[in-house]
Amino acid sequence: MGLLLDVAVMHERDVPGAQEGGADRLLLSTADGMSPDLEQVSAVLRESDLPVRVMLRLNDSHTTTGGEFTRLIGLMGEYADLGADGVVFGFLDSDLGVDVETCRTLAESNPGVPWTFHGAVDACLESDRAWRHLRQMPGLDAVLASGSPRGMEAGYDDLLALAESDAELAALMMPGHGLVPEQVPWLARAGVGKFHVGPQVRPGRSLKAYVDPGHVRSWRLLLES
Q: Which residues share a beta bridge with 26?
């Protein structure tokens, strides 16, 4: 099986470029990384022939409140009902560890819906402990990670070392923020099978530009090589 290319999109106008370029899956969020409204999700799903995962996040921190959490459970079900392949979320506790109870409860609220833990893992104080918790999460099949809150430029070495030391975690991780082409072959050799790109596939890395098929294709060809 080939390597999976996960591409960030913000609206239906991003979908053609991602599909034509050879993306395998889309990750939909707003420009500021929050949960899109149902109308936006529906528009992207109508445009896309690819699986779409939708962000579950209602504030710009890595925590959530009781009222928000109830809304997140509802959104997860609504996104799935619209036809989303899965969702993306990740919450930390006050000690900057994975909020196991919140994440597990949300995952179990809609059993059978696969999900990605987003880059909050890079903010955890104890990385080993965080990954131990994540490998036990129900329904989790990808962890968007960069090895550092500053992205792959700072975290690449640590992420690669983790992949090389543990095949199960290598299969779970999906390198993303700040990923550059020259890092891909080494990560793939270490057993990493999923890669995420966002600004990398927009002209000038601008969020005002649509996803470009040529930019996506260059990543597709890299993964195939």
A: 7, 52
